[in-house]
């Protein structure tokens, strides 16, 4: 334990009274004489309503569960710290990225996406990799995944996608056997899913350990420096232990033998002092190079190939402390893409824009009202002062008036036009256009990058992917859905499509035009983009 850690100090102040330090009490602090038999009339009579201890004990139990997350329900988390290798002031004014001697406390939650809270760890799925940085300027959340791309390009499709991925609505059983006709139906009709589906059919979707998993911010975000200059940025977490996956047979066996395989590994290793560590890296693109690529930086189904823009290591994160209470911390933590600090800003990626609405909205119901930021795991380590008041589960006692502008004293000072240089100011991006439901043309190229991914694989990795496509797609009841998906695979790589078709009883598709080879690297404006971290 690091006593200097401000988050740890804050948590200590929230600890419940030690239950072993005195007699059992009710929630009102009244000492209870007996907790094993309810109050009844005689030895064989009915239980009395008057037994307030019995009623309180049962009522509290009845209300223990809260709704699980609508996605990413199953997770495991840990505390730790982040420290930058050097100052990133050239690109961002974010305080936690300036001084290598300053450690910022973090909480990270890893998760599977599709299954409920009680599902197994080692299923084929995307993994969440969400980090809350408790910075000196407030909380910054990097809510990422272990894939660098996402299934859809616009958040308006998220409910459709998630409904297709989750079990059937009438009986909560996936159609087919272990795979879903609904998922493959969606994939075959929405080819923007293909790139991420390729990652899903790869060994990346069955990580051996959370400690050996990469993380990605997925979207293009923006760094903003003290002069107000923006730089596009993609975030990367690289595990110091290297990247390791299970093989499919192993993953299936472990599902039966130890459904907690990944969370147990994380817990045990931290308890044993083998603290997992990740390097934090960034791909930086100057604003003037926004259109230098053959894809749109706002499209979350596309990566920026590392040959074109190398990843520059800028810091490291270590997880060194397990939570004390799963519910209070891992379950009640609330990540939100809109939790940013000065120096980090958004882009107009339509998936990110939707996320910036969705997380707070869902947490209002999941965590029972608007005051969940007061929960110990969510509280920033800096003061919170504003005129937001009341609501369910208010645990602060505010005093004074509660509005601004305010000439009567008390409440929060008026903030309009504050000169405070540490205030968050949105980047003054110029935006201008007609209101339309349409994206740039390159959003329609769904095949080039899956082909890039496929070609980057070694032969055995390709075989694992063919086996995965055959296994998953082969469970589809609808032959039409199988055929349509294979038709999409043909547009990525004919040999892959042929190998999958043969394994699932679909006619060999006609060879279609191969996708174009990757474009040559653009000449980027930054001269020092060598990825050497200097
Ligand atoms: C939860 C990542 C897209 C809505 C999560 C979590 C992660 C994540 C890591 C779990 C957070 C935790 O551990 O508590 C991502 C990534 C996305 C993406 C990387 C795409 C790049 C979306 C979209 C929406 C969405 C498009 C909706 C428009 C949600 C919701 C939750 C969630 C509602 C549950 C949050 C809660 O109950 O606290 N997401 N997500 N996500 N995500 Fe996403």
From TrEMBL:
**Catalase core domain span:** 25-412
**Enzyme Commission number, as recorded:** 1.11.1.6
| Residue ranges of the region described as Disordered | 1-29, 384-404
Listed under catalytic activity are: 2 H2O2 = O2 + 2 H2O
Q: Which UniProt keywords apply?
A: Heme, Hydrogen peroxide, Iron, Metal-binding, Oxidoreductase, Peroxidase
Q: Which family does it belong to?
A: Belongs to the catalase family. HPII subfamily.
Function, please?
Decomposes hydrogen peroxide into water and oxygen; serves to protect cells from the toxic effects of hydrogen peroxide.
What protein does this entry describe? Catalase
